[in-house]
């Protein structure tokens, strides 16, 4: 899913939210024989995004929740 964002840093927070949703849906719908939800979430960001506080807070939340399927480039 492509997502357009507004202010700098918001894209990383959106990606963290998508990764959280992926984990929730995987826990709800995946079964031993069927992996219905099994994907990675990618965010492409620049240096301006990383300098904003919202990206630092979202990254901290992703680390706290151990979102291993989130990739920030």
UniProtKB/TrEMBL annotation:
Superkingdom of the source species: Bacteria
Transketolase N-terminal domain sequence ranges: 1-73
Example of a GO MF term: transketolase activity
Protein's UniProt name: Transketolase
SUPFAM superfamilies recorded: Thiamin diphosphate-binding fold (THDP-binding)
Alphabetical GO biological process terms: pentose-phosphate shunt
Source organism per UniProt: Bacillus cereus
Pfam families found in the cross-reference section: Transketolase_N
GO cellular component, one term: cytosol
